[in-house]
Write a structure and sequence with these properties.
With 383 residues, the protein is of the alpha+beta class. The chain contains nine helices and 17 strands. Helix 2 crosses helix 8 and helix 8 runs antiparallel to helix 9. About 6% of the residues have low confidence.
């Protein structure tokens, strides 16, 4: 009797155990999905009957997941799991729960294009349009004529590329500038996260422009030189400009002007002067002065001397900015060449006077004269 009861219980338990084993075996190969900050997801399932994958988002909405099955792995396309939170996916009636970090980056939202690359006067300059990424997050390949490459990434770069700098204009154009490297034939830019099927790049040849000799030499008077320069094409004007406040052999003075020449590509105003200050490594003047005064006596004097020189240079660059504005008015037909040349000659004279004046009161007086001259020019536009 007991033996018969035991056998009956065994027979009754067999289907239950078998059912439980079938459930375990049916789900063992269905792993917890892995979710990425690109809005993509990957999951493995050993047995697949229906390849349809559905998902439930954190807000309770459901959607069919777009992607591809390959070797029992399902790779979902980007930009589907974009919200941070808990998701459910269902395949063949079986579900898995997993968390997603939310969208941070996607190659599908990324675009970048090189507009130009020029080598001239010991500098390499390029312009780049980019959306969906920071300039510093891209990779830059400087390709020589021999085919050899120099690679810049924010993770590391060779010594030749340490001078590479980025500036962004108000129009969103990114300006690249660095000390020139011999034999650079082209520049190629890509993103380190966009590989394989998502690989994208932009490449452009780097044009070498010979420095033209000055056709508006210093043998002419100041106003004649200004008028000569204004008669040239825009791209030739910079090559024919020698600041009156820089002596012929004053390399320090000329280097200061050369340091900020890329800033004149920015629109006049805040962004242009911000570029000038960045190139000069000049922050808020009051804070710079406070930091200098916090140093010991020996270093304090030198720090304040350098700061004063930088502030004076910034003032002269502001005066030079007025000359650039006058050139713009001329190109727009708002003033005559005679008016522009006369104004530029006066401002150049004020810069020389500013340097030769030793006292603060004298320098302020020069600034006021320059301001008055600018107001005269602007008032003339209203007539």
């Amino acid at each position: 009797m007991k033996r018969g009861l035991i056998l009956a219980l065994i027979f009754l338990l067999i289907p239950i155990v078998a059912a439980e084993r079938e459930n375990v075996a049916g789900t063992t190969g269905f792993r917890t999905p892995e979710c990425f900050d690109t809005g993509a997801m990957r999951v493995r399932k050993a047995t697949i009957i229906d390849k349809t994958v559905t998902a439930e988002a954190p807000d309770g909405s459901t959607f069919n997941v777009q992607g591809e099955w390959k070797n029992n792995y399902f790779d979902a396309e980007e930009l589907q799991f974009t919200e941070s939170g808990t998701y459910y996916i269902t395949v063949d009636g079986q579900s898995r729960v997993f968390d997603c970090p939310g969208l941070a980056f996607s190659c599908q939202l990324l675009s970048f294009e090189l507009k130009d690359c020029v080598r001239s006067r010991g500098k390499l300059q390029a312009s780049l349009e980019a959306e969906g990424t920071m300039a510093e997050d891209l990779e830059y390949e400087f390709i020589k004529g021999t085919g050899r490459k120099k690679l810049w990434t924010k993770m590391g770069f060779p010594e030749e590329l340490t001078s590479l700098k980025f500036d962004e204009t108000e129009e969103g154009i990114i300006k690249l500038e660095m000390d020139d490297i011999d034999d650079v034939a082209s520049l190629k830019i890509s993103h380190p996260r966009c590989l394989g099927a998502d690989f994208m790049f932009t490449e452009i040849d780097c044009e070498e422009i010979a420095v033209p000799e000055m056709s508006c030499g210093r043998s002419l008077g100041v106003k004649q030189r200004a008028k000569c320069k204004l008669g040239l094409a825009k791209e030739q004007r910079a090559a024919n400009y020698h600041p009156e406040d820089c002596a012929e052999d004053d390399t320090d003075c000329l280097d200061r002007y050369g340091l900020v020449k890329g800033c004149w590509d920015f629109p006049t105003g805040t962004s242009r002067m911000a570029c000038v200050k960045r190139q000069m490594n000049l922050g808020e003047i009051a804070l710079e002065k406070r930091d200098c005064n916090a140093l010991d006596v020996g270093n304090r004097e030198n720090c304040n001397s350098v700061l004063k020189e930088n502030v004076y240079s910034l003032i002269k660059f502001r005066l030079h900015n007025l000359e650039k504005n006058a050139e713009k008015y001329l190109d727009l037909g708002m003033i005559t060449e005679e008016e522009a040349a006369s104004f530029i000659a006066d401002i150049e004279g004020f810069k020389v006077e500013f340097d030769s004046t030793a006292t603060k009161e004298g320098k302020k007086a020069v600034i006021l004269k320059a301001r008055q001259r600018w107001l005269e020019l602007v008032r003339g536009l209203e007539k």
